[in-house]
Amino acid sequence: MSCRILILTIIALNLTPLLLPADNSWRERTAMPRSLSHGGHFIVGDSVFIGCGFNGGTYNNAFYKYVVPRDEWIESAPLPGRGRNLGAAFSLQGNGYAGIGWTGAPPSEKLKDFYRYDPSSGSWERLDDFPGNANTDFQQFTIAGKGYVCGGLDGPFKSAQTWQFDPITETWTEKASMIEAISRGVGFSINSYGYVIGGNANGKNRFFYRYDAQADVWEQLGESPLEPAVWSIAFTHNGKGYIAGGWIGTATYDQFWEYDPARNEFRQLGDLPGKMYAGQAFSFEQRPFISSGKFNEGGGNRKPSVTFEYIPAEQFIATDSLSAFVYCEDADGGLVYFSTESGFAADNQFELELTEDLYDYEAGTIIASGSASPIRFDLPDDFKMSEIYKLRVNSTSPRVYGNYLLDNVKMLYYPDAPSIELRNDTLFASSFAVNHWYRDGKPYDTTNLRHLVLTEPGVYTMFTTRGCPSPFSNAIRFMLTDVEQDPQEPPPFTLRGSTIFLSQDRLHSLALYSATGRLIHGFSLAADNVAIPLSLARGLYFLIGSTSDGALFTTKYYRY
Q1: More confident residue, 432 or 134
Q2: What are the φ/ψ torsions at residue 188 (nearest 5 degrees)?
Q3: Which of 7, 213, 370, 410 could form a disulfide with 414 if both were Cys (CB 3.0 to 4.6 A apart)?
Q4: Distance between CA atoms of residues 307 and 280, nearest Å
Q5: Closest among 97, 52, 92, 51 to 74, alpha carbons compared
Q6: From CA 306, how far away is CA 310, in angstroms rounded?
Q7: By CB neighbour count within 10 A (0-12 exposed, 13-18 middle, 19+ buried), where does 485 fall?
Q8: CB-based contacts of 206: which residues, under 8 Å, 6+ apart?
Q9: Contact residues for 237 (Cβ-Cβ < 8 A; gap 6+)
Q10: Mean pLDDT on 379-393
């Protein structure tokens, strides 16, 4: 068997978190089939539904379903009623809810109709109308399975009302009003708190507010460091809030900030992949996304149907968790990846990228994608083992979610082979993985045991696999005996337990051998009917005796 085994050696021992630039923190996904802004979204099952909104003079009631695991968009049932924008949408109790808003299409109208989407039937059902004053430009969030809309616009007037929607009773209840009337801000929730940032209050609003749903109380947390903007987008991830983009006057922002509620602190991250506002942000199974909205990569505002997934870059992982990245050529010439250390759980999904220049994205090639099980990938044709690479691991496992960067990574041959040791009649392998045993150069055992009890003479060796085959181990010769037993004469001795019993006077000498031919005890005998106690471990033994006339007698004995 010939194979090439390689291991990733981590040369840099002091691994620190690295914030990647925006184009390495955001990954573009499949675009929406239709461009829109100022819409709404909800999550049902494995899909995110985005719909309504505004597009080139048209007020939409269309909805599109984004199937996240397949990165695929499918047109869904439209919202009943008139096309609209700036409404409300929630994901509650396994259903989607959407409605309210405003339409400028003649005749322009304030809309208060509200609907439930049933994923089992793929249809909408109208519920009671929204009872609040405002009907558009809300801040909204969900807490403990209930939806909240707060502030907004009532015609030309701003509102401070807060309304709670209960999906069990499908009713609206008015709650404590906001500290001041705000519209066009952005809301998000963490645990039992709702947060509102930005928007229009009295001019440009820098204030930051928190709503305690259990106490039904609003409080002002101070000023935020963000550029004051309207129609920003926000999502929550791992107990933190993320606020991005926004617009004010003629300026569109690509700002991207993280809010830590435990410290009541903001931290500026890398920029968005473009300037954006009035889009949708959501987190699906620990994977954050932004989609739709008004997006500007340069030049004037436009409304492409963009979708990006955010890969958090602030986390880090210990070097010893990455020290077992092993690569090997298999029979098909491909390469197989696997990880055995604590850095990745069995449910982890990841991708690897090797590149000589991290910021030259064209040089990087995604070479692997899968779980902790072996997966196949092909190295680039110009890949050179002797060069130093950067390794980027994009993990979507909830336990180690993040984008990790390791510098100074080198591919090396992996020379280690398992070793085997013979103890009595049993071969012990050093590897705990899947062991493949060979006898006299041919496959011998298919049970993949770590301990192999021998019953046949021969030369034994083995190799191990755990995603990749190792080199062969050392070889051990096992022999039963080189002496022929005389079939005409019974042996003049017996071995019972750990005691040798002699009963014939013509026995001249006696020797006890291990199964490999190693001498354990030798005796010169001058007495009859002698019992000789021995200390014997479990295993196979051979007694070889000689008589005064030179005859040899042997017997095989297994000590249990």
Answers
A1: 134
A2: -155, 165
A3: 7
A4: 9
A5: 51
A6: 13
A7: middle
A8: 223, 224, 226, 228
A9: 283, 286, 288, 310, 312
A10: 53
End-to-end CA distance of the chain: 37
Give the span between the Cα atoms of 241 and 266, in whole angstroms.
9
Q: How many CB atoms lie within 10 A of CB 546?
A: 18
Q: What are the tokens at 16? A: 């620190």
Higher pLDDT, 163 or 325: 163
Q: Quick: pLDDT tens for 251-291.
A: 899 999 999 998 899 999 888 888 999 999 999 877 899 99
Residue that the structure tokens 């010169």 belong to: 524
Distance, CA of 93 to chain centre: 26
pLDDT cut 70: percent of the chain above it: 63
* pTM for this predicted structure: 0.58
What distance in Å separates the CA atoms of residue 284 and residue 263, rounded to the nearest whole number?
25
Average pLDDT over residues 450-465: 81
> Which amino acid does the sequence have at 368?
A
How far apart CA 242 and CA 350 sit, in angstroms, is 23
Say how far apart CA 111 and CA 314 lie, in whole Å. 42
- Interval 182-223: pLDDT, tens: 999 999 999 999 999 999 876 667 889 999 999 999 999 988
Q: How far apart are CA 248 and CA 230, in angstroms?
A: 6
